[in-house]
Amino acid sequence: MEESSNGKEAMNEQKEEEQSEEGPHNYDAAKYERPSVTVDVLMMSLRQRDLQMLLIKRRSWPYEGMWAIPGGFINMDESLETAAKRELQEETGVEDVYLEQLYTFGNPGRDPRTRVITVVYFALLDSELLQVSAASDATDVGWFSVYDLPPLAFDHQMIVEYALNRLRGKLEYTTIAFNLLPEQFTLRELQWVYEIILHKKLDKRNFRKKILSTNILEDTGAKKMEGTHRPARLYRFNPEAESKL
Fold it and tell me: Region Disordered: what ranges (predicted)?
């Protein structure tokens, strides 16, 4: 028993000595493997009565010539969000858009270059307000239907599917759909947004009853012609009632 006790004490002393040696002046980061970190920015918009996303065509290896979500490696001196905005500007020319962090993807084999973890951001916005153009890391840039995408680089197809499922889930408890609408809109236009995202038809009567019961909308008093039908009321989002949706 005494020998065992002495052995434990020696091990504890050695451990304490090793820990005391690890300080700011002698810490060696090279002792640990360091995966690379990237950011990808998934941008969606309603275009041509379809939910579309912005893609870039890769200029270099790996996956040269394939379409991908805009993104790239972060610099040591920048935050994740700063890196996301920089990459978006460099690859597409897009600036000053609101980004929301979606998820982190880190499958060990997702990138043939090295061990790469990516933090994905996404945004819903009006594409008409953007002027996109291919820049440093891309040969082309364009909008594609999320329901008819070309083959994508890396694990980007899985990322898109995850984002779409998350977006559909958020329709139930957030006001995310209003980011795809103008300031004033009709109930028909709002239902159209939900149907495009959910990728299915909704019952008009039930949809309107549910939406109007939340008091999330304000009647502007104005009206708008929709085809040959009688003028439709124009509504706007009521931020004070957001928690009721």
Answer: 1-31
